[in-house]
Specification:
The chain is an all-alpha fold and about 300 residues long. The protein is about 70% helix and about 0% strand. The protein is globular, with a radius of gyration of 19 Å.
Length: about 300
């Protein structure tokens, strides 16, 4: 499910000169002081730690749910973590000049806490290490995981500016359960409804990520699918995708007290979310509701256990 990075990554293209590897403002002052802790903290911040930890945790939860051996759970978690770091660092490196131009002081490079070159180097190391750590899961799981990571990097390279901005999210999130089930012994395919749920969660995550910043993104040149649809259709699409994910779990895992309760909770959250979409500007409350609905689906997946794989 990984994925392309979340919060605020939809920032657009602006006309700026220079190369992403050029030093960010204040780089020499910070580095000259030898403040290793500050640089380390900035490097962690440039990795998009929230989404990186969330996707890694999801992979571990799914691994526990299907009963992978301890060492396999560790291997899955580490491989996914390294891949997510590569995606996060590639985003901040590639967006360095744009972030600086629009005053993104919440971004470590634009704030001058670390150089673009340092983040680029971290990305290269993580991207290279993704291959051997993926192979430790076995070739069956390694291939979809590498595709997952490449999909996330492709989003950062420019797919996010197109009408196909949704595709890397659906591909990466849809592949995550398959990576986990194929890492088992023996390897097994994920059930169709699990893959569908992951892909739909990815679609919802894409819309959730963009909604609070639609207007700013348009001004800086981003024209992804949510920007083309507009605020209300994008908000409705996010909650619609989450409801479809809940329905996929209900159909795939079968009706039970747990799946029915999950569906009811999902409907309640979606109803509140749709009301907010129709009556007020997008904001963090809406984003949190989408995340809450997604967490309900993740819990339902985790409780499905061995039914997650064929």
């Amino acid at each position: 499910m990984a994925a392309p990075t979340a919060s605020h990554d939809e920032r657009g293209e602006v006309a700026v000169s220079g190369h992403p590897d050029d030093a960010a403002p204040g780089e020499h002052g910070a580095d000259g002081e030898g403040n290793a802790w500050r640089r380390t903290r900035a490097l962690v911040g440039a990795s998009h730690p929230g989404p990186t930890v969330a996707v890694t945790a999801l992979a571990i939860i799914l691994s526990l749910a299907i009963g992978l051996a301890e060492q396999r759970i560790f291997a899955v978690g580490f491989a996914v973590l390294v891949g997510q770091l590569a995606i996060g660092w590639s985003n901040d490196w590639l967006d360095a000049r744009r972030d600086e131009a629009v005053g993104r002081t919440d971004k470590p490079i634009a704030a001058g806490d670390i150089s673009a070159a340092a983040v680029r180097n971290a990305f290269i190391v993580a991207a290279v290490l993704t291959v051997p750590f993926s192979l430790l899961l076995g070739i069956d799981a390694a291939i979809p995981h590498i595709v997952l990571v490449v999909s996330g990097i492709a989003y950062n390279l420019g797919v996010k500016k197109t009408a196909y901005s949704w595709l890397p999210y659906m591909v990466s999130f849809g592949l995550l359960p398959t990576v986990v089930t194929l890492a088992g012994s023996p390897p097994a395919e994920a059930e169709w409804w699990v893959i569908a749920t992951g892909a739909l969660l990815g679609l919802a995550a894409h819309f959730a990520n963009v909604l609070p910043d639609l207007d700013d993104d348009r001004q800086t040149g981003i024209r992804g699918l949510p920007h083309r649809l507009g605020r209300v259709p994008s908000g409705l699409a996010a909650f619609g995708a989450l409801l479809l994910a809940s329905l996929a779990i209900l159909v795939g895992a079968g009706p039970s007290a747990v799946t029915l309760i999950g569906l009811v909770l999902g409907l309640l959250v979606a109803a509140l979310g749709v009301r907010l979409v129709l009556t007020r500007p997008p904001g963090r409350v809406l984003f949190r509701l989408i995340i809450l609905a997604a967490l309900i689906d993740v819990v339902l997946l985790a409780l499905s256990g061995s039914r997650l794989r064929v």
